[in-house]
Amino acid sequence: MDKKTGCLVGCLGMIAAVMAIPAGLVVLVLILAVAASSSINFDESASIAFGSDIPESGRPMQKVWIGGEGDEGSPKILRVKIDGVIADVPEGLFGREKASAISALKKIRAATKDDDLRGLYLVIDSPGGEVTLSDVIADAVQRFKNSGEGRFVVVEMGALCCSGGYYIAAGADRIVAHPTTITGSIGVLMSSVNAADLARKIGIESVVIATGENKAMLDPLKPVDPGHVEILRKAVDADYERFLSVVSKGRKLPVDKIRPLADGRIFSAEEAKELKLVDEIGYAEDVEALVAEMAKSEAVRIYRYKDDTTLRDIFNDSFFSSQGMSRTLRLVSGDVVHGGPAFMTGVK
User: Fold this and answer.
1) Which of 52, 99, 223, 329 has the most neighbouring CB atoms within 10 Å?
2) Would you state the CATH architecture of domain 41-187+250-333?
3) Pairing between strand 152-162 and 119-126?
4) Highest-pLDDT range among 21-30, 114-123, 338-347
5) Does the predicted model carry a pTM greater than 0.90?
């Protein structure tokens, strides 16, 4: 082999090696993603049983024993956590794990059809979120309660259980707040940004072709129309009245008692207990004891569902999929408006 040929072979080999690095990284990421999505449980201390099929996916979910001192014959309780903003957006590596609220909704619906379960133990640590999704989850909780004689729901509040989080919690049979929980923020908001004055100064004009004068409400480049504000106010008020009725029914308090508290303010755990927005203040151990009491048993077994996620799901739910891109663009464009501890609501 002459010098030129050797140099050429060496250069080609180097190029191939460099190109192999990103390809190898992609393969490694895929392997890790598959391993992360596997339904195999590596916790040898956990006892696994199979739950019912999920209507949405048609795939079974596993019940993994995570706590409780009961034996195999003890009442079985499902623990479900709702963590973070209540919104239908993808999270995690490649968007594999959907928002906690969506995952929780799927599990609550599965629990409703799982005759093996006696109670639902919800852990809610959320500042709030989308009004409709909060209402759908709250409805699913009520359907679980009504699906069998003696079924019950207990809520353990985390650091935050505000707005949409409280909307869901209000329908529980018993609510336990941590000593440092912040809760409340009962209310609804719809927000937008108006830059009409700025647009006029720099020579930007909004051109909208719409089928009616109310179709382009809250156009950020046009002055705010009081008539549009009134239309949107009616929608917000309707959601607010529904929120009040959910809290009133769940806490067994007259609406007139709830309304003065429902101006968006937050409460400490002690204040919430005094106002009867929560029942008790305690820790996880106290909640587990309460769950056993509700089940009328000396001990219970607490389980969680584990999703049986496939590689196809990873890419179907990813940021790079059409659904993932659509949800992300909705958030960026303001179709879903974040409002701190209060609700988010969609505007179209």
Assistant:
1) 99
2) Alpha-Beta Complex (3.90)
3) parallel
4) 114-123
5) no
